[in-house]
């Protein structure tokens, strides 16, 4: 019941207003920034519910999760209101997805709790083999220069 009420509240909130949850385009940068602060507050209000529902208490605290979320907002800083509006729309979609249990626990952990555990191994300075360089560039890799179809 609480989930339905929360999703209904999010669907009718200023961040996801008409028509049919379409993105709202801000008239100015201050308006877009105000909407982003409002959305951040909405997300922070849902953190305790997310912590309980996804059993995140054993891997992080609510304060740490809020800090990670704040870093996500800071990382995506831009001065273009249209870009801010699209990012708010995508963020609202993701919040509704989390609230509707379409995410699993490990998705939240790897995205917000411990993103460094999901880091791609950095490329080494080791030179590529001729085969691999040709393969990645789409050139023939067979010894005779023809495709091996």
TrEMBL record:
InterPro entries attached to this UniProt entry: Complex1_LYR_NDUFA6_LYRM6 (IPR045299), NADH_Ub_cplx-1_asu_su-6 (IPR016488)
| Highest taxon of the lineage | Eukaryota
Q: What is its main location?
A: mitochondrion
Kindly list the places in or outside the cell where this protein is found, as annotated in its UniProt entry: Mitochondrion inner membrane
Keyword Mitochondrion found: yes
Keyword Ligase carried by entry: no
Residue intervals passing through the bilayer: none
* Biological processes per GO annotation: response to oxidative stress
* Keywords (A to Z) from UniProt: Electron transport, Membrane, Mitochondrion, Mitochondrion inner membrane, Respiratory chain, Transport
Its record classes its membrane topology as: Peripheral membrane protein
GO CC annotations, alphabetized = mitochondrial inner membrane; respiratory chain complex I
Q: Please report which protein family the annotation says this sequence is part of.
A: Belongs to the complex I LYR family.
Identify this protein by name: NADH dehydrogenase [ubiquinone] 1 alpha subcomplex subunit 6
Organism encoding this protein: Micromonas pusilla (Picoplanktonic green alga)
